[in-house]
Amino acid sequence: MKLIIATIKPYKLDEVREALTEKGVRGMMVSEIKGFGAQSGHTEIYRGAEYTVNFVPKIRIELVVEAAQADEVVKTITDTARTGKIGDGKIFVLDVEQTIRVRTGETGADAI
């Protein structure tokens, strides 16, 4: 099993969720986060005053899938979230040793 952690632009969330649902992904965790990468924030003007925004709003998606499905899920997220502009996000893929569904006690792929 693989844990896929993706950071994307907030307005891409619904599009990514729909694309993943079509690919058979049954669940995910979503968090609102702030961060910066290559863009290192930006400057904005509010009521005539200039200020620096150091952390940019992002969405963090976490999902666990079977190893055989991981490449397809990563490609789906990449294709759906890409705008071609700086700040599109990152995807991390990690191994998962064990999964347990708390309600039923199911383990492994049955718990996904």
Explained architecture:
The protein is about 20% helix and about 35% strand. It has helices spanning about 15-20, 65-80, and strands at about 1-10, 30-35, 40-45, 50-55, 55-65, 90-95. The strands form two sheets. The protein has a four-stranded antiparallel beta sheet with strand order 2-5-1-6, with helices on one face. A two-stranded antiparallel ribbon has the order 3-4. Helix 1 packs antiparallel against helix 2. The radius of gyration is 17 Å and the shape is elongated. The mean pLDDT is about 90.
Give a concise summary.
This protein has helices spanning 13-22, 67-81, and strands at residues 2-8, 29-35, 42-46, 49-53, 56-65, 90-95. The protein is an alpha+beta fold and 112 residues long. The protein has one domain: Alpha-Beta Plaits.
Give the count of helical stretches. 2
Helical residue percent?
10-25%
> What is the CATH topology classification name?
Alpha-Beta Plaits
CATH-scheme architecture: 2-Layer Sandwich
Counting helices, strands and paired strands, the structural category is: alpha+beta
Largest sheet: 4 strands, antiparallel
Poorly predicted ranges (pLDDT <50, ≥5 residues)?
none
